[in-house]
Queue: 3 jobs
Job 1
Amino acid sequence: MSEVELHQADLAPGDEEGVGVKFRVLGYLTGLALAVLLTATSFFVAGTDLVWQPSIPVAIIVLAIAQMGVHLVFFLHITTGSDNTNNVMALAFGLLIVFLVIGGSLWIMANLNHNMMPMDQLMQMQR
Amino acid sequence: MAVAAAVARGHDPNLIGLDAVHDGPAPKRIVTGYGFWIFLLSDMVMFSCFFAAYAVLLGQTAGGPGGAELFNLRNVALETACLLASSFTCGMASIAAEVRSHLWFQIAMAVTCILGLAFLSIEFHEFADLVARGAGPSRSAFLSAFFTLVGCHGLHVSGGTLWLLTMMAQVFAKGFRADIQRRFLCFALFWHALDIIWVAVFSVVYLLGSAA
């Protein structure tokens, strides 16, 4: 190859591109502030009567996903930059498996539950 | 070097126009970090199985107590605060390791360790209290799933705390050598990932459990 480096260096997960200490501390502080805000909101929503009750579980889940995103970006430094592609692709595959496992289990088990004969009838038949 | 690379790339930051141009294997730090990232993702897949089991068994209380009667949200808020703050101080330790400041590294790690231990002691007391009230893991399928999920996270935090102390000792004894820095990179990833899993735990188990 030529002496000019053609390839852009990759970044290890958790590493940041070369920036000053002040800027990095500021990054962690931003992450902490956002995470505290989201956590406090989620705890507040869980215990309040001010919100329409059926919306509470959805709100808690949305806040949790948002907070995981904040942790990924500000603490683990998984970003959408071109030097981070490998890390993001691995994360995407991990998320696919996570959703398959959780969604698939809930779906199948709810279906089985729905199709099962009520317990008292089942007992009757066994007599 | 970065400037030269940028000039060579021109207006093609994502290297779309270039065929595969390889300049040797990736640095060890990237290989190690990436490998550990894959491990963490597989750990998250394992946790997703426990979450699925918990969600399926949520209603199977066998006439025993459910989540709303058992959980104390004040404790959970304290645990969350400990873990979140420890994630932040772990980030501070990362910065200290990068600028090779022994003093700040040891301070940040010591605070992280104390917060981790505080989390563990609150969780241990919660578990002991549940067992004392007759709501141990053998009471119902719901409680088995609860203890497995939350206990597995607690075990990870315990392991992480041991690793943390090891890292403090290694940096103290061997300094910021390249291999020690790589181990610390992995530790920081592990600790931050534990906090992500805890976000899922307190939202799904405790908040949804006591809201429902």
Job 2
Amino acid sequence: MNSDSLSDEIANTVKAAVKAEADKPLVVAVMGQTGVGKSTLINRLFGTNLKTDPVKPCTKEVERVVVKSKDGSELWFYDMPGIGEAADVDAEYLNEYRRILLESDIAMWAIHADMRSVSFDRWALDQIIGSDPDEGRDLLSRITVALTKVDHLAPPPWLYVKDGESGVVIPSEVLLEVIEAKQRYFFESLLAPHAEMLTAATYNDSKWTLQLPGFKYTDDTVTYLGYLGEAEASSLAERYPEHSGLLRRLREFYSVVACSSLLRYNLTPLMISVLNKLGRGAVFRFGSQFTDDVSKLTIAEAKACLNIVVVDEGTRHPIDDMGRSGNKRKHLRKGDHR
Amino acid sequence: MTVSDFSDSSVNPDYIARQLRLLESQKSELEELRRRKGWSEVISFLWNAGATVANFFQVPIPQISAGLIQSAWEKVQQWLAKEKLRSATS
């Protein structure tokens, strides 16, 4: 036995293991109440073409939709029935949700951003997590909470920053404050009650070796047991500025992500959250389904949306108002609108 | 419609610049996360494969670490590049 044949043996074993992982389907499940835009969100994130209906609920039972990408890899999307339509079927659906959640690589909990009451989602999430702390921890570690349809929030407008034939959409300053407040509210209502079950992890790019309560580390990864709140993260970042990026990533690990499928807003942070929570080997399956430009919106698509002000990327000044041609914009600066 | 159709105070260029920088940093972070997660997965596969092979050939683990893992890693990298999986691990 020589060292070359041994390294070939190792290399071949690894190649086979990676290929086996990459050839498996990427399994995605999105949970949430009827009409929150679950199918639309998947269409935007993974370039699929799942059926959507703006009026009637499309999904009445769990349906596995198999989508083949150009390279032959498969994405399995569990199209979940929306909950909250009828109490007697919700319990049955929640059991099904739990089972599928355990089988999925990616699990998202979608909530309509304009929803004021969180009690139903909190009840449903509590039911799914169950009373076993270990299982609850495992289930929570898979879920990304997404606030969908933030384009429904007032006040508009949105800003379309044009770059060539496409661009990106960002909220006005006033709207961003509303969105951030929503994210905090839903985090506090849904996830904070389970803070002791959360575990955030990120890559150790700043050579973390600090022995601090709640933190564990290796050369590759830093883990925080619990939820790293904003005040604690800021205080640590002040004391250890070399780790500020790492601390921010740990703090954002369980953040609620507000997004808009229509405007393709915040889909990159949503992808980051999803990727953070991928289980072992799934990164190779994710890679083959990955869409590079999730936040890009063509001019034609932007024109279909109301209340968008177009801003030139170079000058950063408005050049068009698609929603209200002829009207002058007012009250867009932070603090002007109250 | 031109810029003059809007109030000069309607859009804050500094705010837009900050948001665009944030978008760029998010894209970079997504790429970095993909790369590092892929890389750590391959390392984990390498380590497990090394342990499997060590067991199969009944050699002590230290003998198959370092140089052999490095050599196997390079072969895996070449294969990943050929298979276009490299973006997740390069």
Job 3
Amino acid sequence: MGPGTWFAALLCLSLAAVLIFLGLPVAAIFLDTSPTELIASLGQPEARDALMLSLRTTAASLALIVLVGTPAAYLLATRSFRGKAVVVTLVELPLVLPPAVAGIALLASVGPTGLLGSLTGDSLALQTAGVVVALTFVASPFYIRQAQAAFAALDRSWLDAARTLGASEAGAFVRVAVPAALPGLAAGTALALGRALGEFGATLIFAGSFQGVTQTVPLAIYARFATDFDAALALAAVLVLISAALLLAVKLVGRSSTLAGA
Amino acid sequence: MLELSAQTGLGGLELDIELAVPAGRCLALAGPSGAGKTSALRVAAGLLRPERGHAACGGRVWLDTVAGVDLAPEERRCGYVFQDYALFGHLSTWRNVAFALDGPRAERRRRALALLERFGLAGRAGAPPRELSGGERQRVALARALARRPAALLLDEPLSALDARTRAAASRELGAVLAEAEVPALLVTHDFAEAALLGDEVGVIDAGRVVQRGSASELAAAPASAFVADFTGAAVLTGTAGEPENGLTPVALDGGGEVATTDAGRGPVAVTVFPWEVELAPAGSHPAGSARNRLAAEVLSVTAVGNRVRVGLATPQPFAAELTEPAARELGLAPGRRVEAVFKATATRLVRL
């Protein structure tokens, strides 16, 4: 046996261990439910409500994140100013915050008795809008970080060239920076999407778990797994399929945009 | 007419320039990297705001820090060719050119294709920039800069990203474009030969200031400083000039040796001479001839430069000679060999230090 062979075998074994550890639980979700059971449990109104709510709130929060986060990330990537490091740290803080802490923090700030309680009243806590707020709070740093890196990696002379070719500052952003950074922005969207779709702790604490109003798919799974394990499994299977499909779609967007010039 | 003046600090460099370029002419600013060349272009284009400055083109004021005028880059109509061309990687070649154009898509496409055609790039219109060769990229950048019918052309090292073979052809084409352009052109380069080739006039820039301005041959023949002499390719020897005798000034060289020059001067000076004015002879030989100056030298390096050979010498000051390849072979030049550097007093220029 050559000196390099055992190392190659070690690498292969490590990858195999990773694949089994990560793949087996996901595969088990599908192996444990039959397709008929899956469809049957999706016929239940609770399951349908949870799915629709998850899709609606995730879409709303992603729209917010991309719309506000993209220009914010552009500013962080292209300008230097005093205290920028502090700002970047603040933006990234929710990444390391435990979700339960995020939920409490939202209650303390925009809950009925929170800092801004006199403004928000009951409009957010325990409401669908509150779910969107919770998802946005935990998911936006994933997008903004990635978008900032994508903008920072742009050749600055492209932005200068756009200006000398007649584009305003906003024009250079829309016509050059965003399209050129699109693969990075798509990757950031995928990360934020995954985080938002799976959000549990902050939503539970800030918005509660009311069917059709705040009970997203992860909350519905939690509510069901003790009493109706098959229904929980079916919901989990659907969540896996949706996440995988969205991840694939976002990756394709990133891929096709890099090929757009070809 | 493009007028530009700027005084501003640039992190360790004090940029202080004032220049004017008439329409249809090209001023080439030549200088080493870090001299402030690109900053001068950026001030003209509105990409860099100086502490104090004024810029005007075609009777329109672009920048006046006293009056508080500072037009945005998109309002100045500069055709800017960036050093690495800055072609948009996410857009095809024709879209890069069409970026600068206004109007309906079909019209922009037609005009972009017409411009590309003019630069011999019609067949590459649909290709992304990364599939173009260096020379093609340079022409796309030029076509794109001209697309807006600019009021002035600004070119940052337009040839430096090209390999030696492409550079000759690209420089001929660029020369033709500049000759045809009816607008003032400001070009910056670190290569004096490039500046001489492309500029109607050359300004040598050092440490943020234009130290001398004139035609390339004027600069080479009468450098105002040792820096300009060195930059134009002349070899420089420093020393102390003594009392002139029979119209010749003797210069005692630092480190030993003496040369005579027909220029007048006293005190600390630099003697400059072009390497192609310097002949090499075997050490100890006494060839007949009119050349006054003989310096014992040791060969440090022998480098082929095109069809010539540049010989690096220690006299002990660094010195250089250029010979033809057969002549170098005949002398058996190799590092360590002792030779005599011979040149006429009339071939030298004296610069006060």
